[in-house]
Specification:
With 57 residues, the chain is of the alpha+beta class. The protein contains two helices and two strands; from the N terminus they run H-H-E-E.
Amino acid sequence: MTEQRDLPPEAQRALAEAEERRKATKPQDLPPELGGRDGPEPVRFGDYEKKGICVDF
């Protein structure tokens, strides 16, 4: 991963602004999913797996 000091000033500023936005946002209070899949959130990882078969979108 590239260190921040190797980046141009504009990129460093953008990363700092993004970090501030991440810290300012509250975590979502979502209700639990009923009958959902076990394991990691499939949308986050870009695929669904069921019975050993992985389906990409």
